[in-house]
Design goal:
Rossmann fold
Length: 602
């Protein structure tokens, strides 16, 4: 086996208190594509900085192939001192690198090479930083949250570039679908230590859950063994005559092991504060338009949003998602058309910029400086107790916000938002910087929210799991609303992302907010024999498929299954995914036919 290009072993680092890294390891060979995953604040970015030589470890061995080139993508790129974007990107090239590649990447990422870096938006700065690290085609590519602030088209372009790349890649990201498509191995950083799975991220969560279950079982066994040994020492015949010093020493060692065990990190508790129920009609927009000369941002857009709808806004950066969102919520007046808001609306908004006073403490931010209590769902709670729901420690109450990681800041903003009563949640890029466990809880919150949700997101997996309809831009400022999530939108639109000219489609009638539009056969006002047959048979087929899925889900839930038969586990998981896809297809077909039948019958 060829020596690794990069090898970190036994890395230790602490900033006082519990070690951040306690024997962590990371190894990358040519062609590796590694997903580095873990909770917010677990030390992923720090480990990547140690690999890049930007942070010095307190202990451990570090090897970098002397001839290997390394490029590191920071979460916040520093572009100071460069006159143009092209100059910034070219500064990443080595003496033997192709200078034309810088121009190619700038054009591919939709940037203006002559633009001044200080005039770039957050998304444009991110794309420029990507161009800089990709341009030299380095031996080792270290990427820290490369998809943050990127639109969907750019994320899919980046996936293709990384899949084709010959570089060894280590990437930190909370975008599930991105990691599933680019990774071949997964390194899990948990409680200061790393574990490696030589499979892509798609297999990670099942493996992680199994590891945690085994760890909990081993800890339970250790506790029972300590009880038995203590009983022997106190009451055994040998113990009454003479202490067995060897067994006593082993007991002390077991006690120390049991006490020093760091349990798995807890889960955040996300729960929106209840508000009075809004009216059935939440927002009605008729023919609204907005332009910023000479560009038309929104043209003749109409929709009816009703209580319980969950609307997703998607599109390229600069398409006007935030502008449309502000018009729908009454924050920005349209140039033409009208927007009517329903009654009893209580709106809670998560702004994309999330401006924070970095010198403010966590407790002061959550309470608005009004004492040490926060009111949640009408109940007064101490701010420290509420902070624990979002995985903050009591000692962090007086910590300045500037000392928090990006993910911790995102959790803090959510904590303040969810403490306020609301029946309409307006979320602009809510998934940025959140770890996957918190993303899961946010997904459950959005899916189960009794009110209405309008969100802007570039996270395809999150959109598919939460929204009932998706609004996407077409050409000339037209926006079209599609039933379902991001994948459903692509199917109906007949194109991949937003790079090609989309198929012509008309805005749907909002009275069918959560359902596909009937096919053109509705015009005939008659169901064909084939459609009638499908309408009769599909419910039985869906029930049978659900039963098969239940059987496989029970089988795959067995924690010993993966240990006993890894190949069988993988095949069962693949079969289960296929059945889920079949069930979704059948449900959509049945729903479309049922709508057609209702229309035919009057």
């Amino acid at each position: 086996m060829a020596p690794p290009l990069l090898n970190l072993d036994g890395i230790k680092l602490t900033f006082g208190g519990t070690p951040l890294l306690d024997g962590a390891s990371l190894s990358a060979q040519a062609g590796d594509r590694i997903a580095l995953v873990g909770r917010n604040g677990s030390g992923k970015s720090t480990l990547l900085k140690i690999a890049a030589g930007l942070v010095e470890a307190q202990d451990g061995e570090i090897f970098r192939q002397p001839s290997a080139t390394i490029r590191y993508l920071r979460q916040s790129p520093d572009m100071e001192g460069f006159a143009t974007v092209l100059a910034y990107v070219e500064a990443g090239l080595g003496p033997s690198d192709d200078p034309h590649r810088a121009t190619y990447l700038i054009e591919s990422l939709g940037l203006d090479g002559t633009a001044a870096p200080e005039n770039l938006s957050g998304g444009e700065a991110r794309r420029a930083a990507l161009a800089r690290v990709l341009a030299p085609q380095p031996d080792i590519l270290l990427l820290d949250e490369p998809t943050n602030h990127l639109d969907l088209a750019t994320i899919e372009w980046l996936e293709g570039e990384l899949v084709r790349s010959t570089s060894a890649i280590v990437v930190i990201s909370h975008d599930r679908r991105f990691l599933e498509r680019v990774s071949k191995a997964t390194v899990w950083l948990d409680r200061g230590q790393t574990r490696r799975l030589d499979k892509g991220f798609a297999h990670f969560e099942a493996w992680r859950d199994q590891v945690l279950e085994e760890e909990e079982r081993d800890q339970h066994k250790l506790g029972r063994q300590i009880v038995r040994e203590e009983h022997w020492l106190r009451y055994g015949v040998t113990a009454r005559r003479k202490r067995n010093m060897r067994r006593l020493g082993e007991l002390h060692s077991m006690r120390q092991q049991f006490r020093s065990h760091r349990g798995a990190e807890g889960k955040a508790t996300l729960q929106a504060s209840d508000a009075n129920e809004s009216g059935k009609l939440v927002i009605e927009a008729k023919g609204i338009a907005k332009s910023f000369s000479p560009r038309q941002i929104v043209r003749d857009f109409s929709t009816r949003i009703q209580r319980g709808d969950r609307i997703g806004l998607v599109g390229p950066n600069g398409a006007g998602k935030t502008t449309l969102l502000k018009m729908l919520t009454g924050e920005l007046a349209p140039d033409a058309g009208s927007v009517r808001l329903g009654v009893n609306l209580e709106i809670a908004t998560l702004d994309q910029k999330r401006d924070l006073d970095l010198d403010e403490t966590l407790a002061h931010y959550l309470t608005d400086g009004r004492g040490d209590s926060v009111v949640v769902n009408g109940e007064q709670r101490h701010v420290v107790s509420y902070m624990k729901d979002f995985l903050f420690k009591p000692e962090q109450a007086r910590t300045p916000i500037r000392e928090l990681s990006g993910g911790e800041r995102a959790r803090l903003v959510l904590a303040r938002l969810l403490a306020r009563p609301a029946n309409l949640l307006v979320l602009d890029e809510p998934t940025n910087d959140l770890d996957m466990e918190t993303l899961d809880l946010l997904q459950e919150l959005v899916s189960g929210f009794p009110g209405t949700v309008i969100l802007v997101s570039h996270d395809r997996d999150f959109l598919d799991r939460t929204v009932t309809s998706t609004v996407a831009p077409e050409e000339d400022g037209r926006w079209v609303e599609y039933a379902g999530g991001y994948a459903d939108m692509l199917t109906q639109r007949g194109t991949k992302a937003f790079t090609q000219k989309p198929a012509k489609s008309e805005p749907r009638d909002k009275t069918t907010a959560s359902s596909p539009k009937p096919s053109g056969n509705a015009a005939s006002k008659k169901l064909s024999f084939k459609q009638k047959f499908a309408l009769e048979k599909l419910p039985g087929a869906m029930e049978a498929t659900s039963a098969k899925m239940a059987t496989l889900e029970t089988k795959i839930a067995d924690p010993q299954f993966y240990v006993r038969d890894p190949d069988g586990f993988a095949k069962t998981a693949a079969t289960l995914d296929a059945l889920r896809a079949d069930l979704t297809r059948m449900e959509e077909e049945w729903l479309e036919l049922e709508m057609l039948r209702e229309e035919v019958e009057g």
